[in-house]
Amino acid sequence: MTLSRRISHLTGDGSDGWDLFYRARRMVAAGVPVVELTIGEHDIRTDPEILSAMDRAARGGHTGYAMVPGTGGLRDTIAARITERTGVATTRDNILITPGGQSALFSAHHAVCDEGDVALYCDPYYATYPGTLRAVGAVPRAIVTRPETGFQPTAADLGQIPQGARSLLINTPNNPSGVVYSKQTLEAVAACCRDHDLWLISDEVYDTQVWDGAHLSPRTLPGMAERTLVIGSMSKSHAMTGSRVGWIAGPEAAIARLIELATHTTYGVPGYIQDAAEFALNAGPALEDRVAAPFKRRRDLALKLLAGQDVVHPVPPSGAMYLMLDIRATGLSGTAFADALLTDRNIAVMPGESFGTAAAGHVRVAMTVDDDLFATALKTLLEFAKERSI
């Protein structure tokens, strides 16, 4: 018996980009002490007050089927949050609650792409993007950005749109690069979408982690509210990665169809988890700032260490919980550098090549261990790079 071509070719007959992560986890399982700077998992856990709210909701009986679109309270809270932060009038009818941001990405592309449509995304990219597009039957095509422009897509990058393109996926603040798209970049993105009649899918799950500049949702730009689906999540903003609660914000007609899709797939998100998410959002910016603070602090710490040497160069880390480091002066690829660093120093970072071709010769460092351990690991990485510089 054979499996479907769609499920058999999610990774395009290649690696899913997580080989080094899996190797590091095997080492840990074998008892080898590894400093893991690989995935975007907070080193703090979900706030106890959020867990208490979840417990109260569950013990209070909210354990049956929840409304498929999401609870009215959570949808209203998210809509109010978006309206306040962007100025775009948003109601519960513009919101669908999903089991995390990844589910939202999958559903959003189902909403806008038919079988064989070209779905665009920017390289470097979060590792699941191409597989998500293949999973809905779309044909993934990368818009390759460059280190010289800080991995921000330029008007020239966006100028060559292939025939059959239906959607464009962007991510700002960006994983893996830590770049926050400028207003100029987002205006070029918006112009591209309007000129080529594209849907824009805007992954904004890191919108509370901005260190330089400001986050701008492209849904606010002229002519974009009717063609933009925004992806949000509680995972990064509130350290609720395991709770699996996210959302899509978009035009009412699209959300109505997405609710039909959810009825036939996920059938909603547990009510007690949604109640906890509503509680967390209503706790206000202070909680979000507390969750984000360690990454800003470690970003600043890293920039001081990087300023003291001239072998490894950071892509300007303006947001998110990652550093993208240019290690081309070592003469190694990102893959070779990361493999050797893990083998020789027991430090795991992600090769830039895990996120496409644009970040070849780079590594991504997740700032997800305590400050002292992070500083020690980064110093070791810099010494390791200096020993191999050419």
From TrEMBL:
It is an enzyme of class 2 (transferase). Pfam families: Aminotran_1_2 (PF00155). Keywords: Aminotransferase, Pyridoxal phosphate, Transferase. This is Aminotransferase. GO terms for molecular function: L-aspartate:2-oxoglutarate aminotransferase activity; pyridoxal phosphate binding. It catalyses: L-aspartate + 2-oxoglutarate = oxaloacetate + L-glutamate. GO terms for biological process: amino acid metabolic process. Its cofactor is pyridoxal 5'-phosphate. Its EC number is 2.6.1.-. The keyword Nucleus does not apply. InterPro entries: Aminotransferase_I/II_large, AspAT/PAT-like, NHTrfase_class1_PyrdxlP-BS, PyrdxlP-dep_Trfase, PyrdxlP-dep_Trfase_major. Gene3D superfamilies: Type I PLP-dependent aspartate aminotransferase-like (Major domain). It comes from Litoreibacter roseus.
